[in-house]
Amino acid sequence: MIQKLSSIKFAFYNLVCLVCFMGAGVYLSRWYKNDFKVMNETLIFEWLKSAWSQTPVLVVWFALLCLSAGLLFVNTLCCSFTKQIQVARKSGKFEKWLFFVLHCLFIVVLACHGLILVVGHKQGNITLFSNSKMLFQNQYLIEVSDIVFKDDINILKAGKQEQRIMMTRDNIHRKQNFAIISLYQASTLLETKKVMMLSPLRHGSIQVTLTDFIVKKADNQDRVGVKLTITDNPLNIFFFTIYALMILSLGGYIITISWGGRD
Q1: Residue 13: exposed, middle, or buried by beta-carbon count in 10 A (0-12, 13-18, 19+)?
Q2: Which of 31, 62, 226, 256 could join 95 in a cystine, given CB atoms 3.0 to 4.6 angstroms apart?
Q3: Which domains does the chain have, with CATH numbers?
């Protein structure tokens, strides 16, 4: 049984299924855009409670995706400790041991991906404007001191379908649109950063992510705000450290086998 679970054939089928389910997710996101946003903004258990009755198709898709990823985890685990370690011991070569270490780091990364879904605290769909603040978990204060949106504000006023058409690289310049966000704990400033889309504020286990810009009419003027998702996950630092080590190990392995091939 372990031999089957650790086989390359089993790994191949799992990877094909994983790619197919990810592709299905891209397709479903066109029809369930808001539901995917809610899923990203809440802990997965909380999302499952409401989604099962409202959008069961997404729950089934997510369950199949997790099953495929879980089987890939089992495959990598079995392969690493029944085959890769034996190959490394027999050969004694550095690149074989490095390949085994790379497998082990990949196992840890997969495990962290799963744990991050259910561990910690998450609060999404938070709307803040310039010079506004909010309390997170009764101990962290998030303050938005300034918001800059230099692109056409009419894009934010447009409907969802129009926004999809208008939000191109020519119309939206990610680095020119940002919010200055500060993180406090007990009146102590922990971090201040220019937060952009895909560039969150991180401090320890806390992460503040800018998910969207909005516009609101106030005193006959357009006022731009931001939507934030805040997470507190103790695995964040460990996950990114292991992920970085895995990338370095992969680079080291490629260099090692490249040099070895020239000898």
Answers
A1: middle
A2: 256
A3: 1-119+237-261 (no CATH), 121-232 (2.60.98)
Q: For the segment 10-19, what is each residue's pLDDT rounded down to a tens digit?
A: 889 989 999 9
Interior angle at CA 162, CA 30 and CA 55, nearest 5: 30
CA distances from 18 to 52, 65, 185 (A): 22, 6, 41
Cα 203 from Cα 200, distance rounded (Å): 10
CB-based contact 215:108 (threshold 8 Å)? no
In 10 A of CB 140, how many CB atoms?
A: 18
Residue 36 has, within 13 A of its CA and on its CB side, a CA count of: 12
**Residues 83-101: tens digit of each pLDDT:** 889 988 998 888 889 999 9
Task: Work out the burial of residue 6: count CB atoms within 10 Å of its CB; fewer than 13 is exposed, 13-18 middle, 19 or more buried.
Answer: buried
Task: Find the radius of gyration of the CA atoms of the chain.
Answer: 23
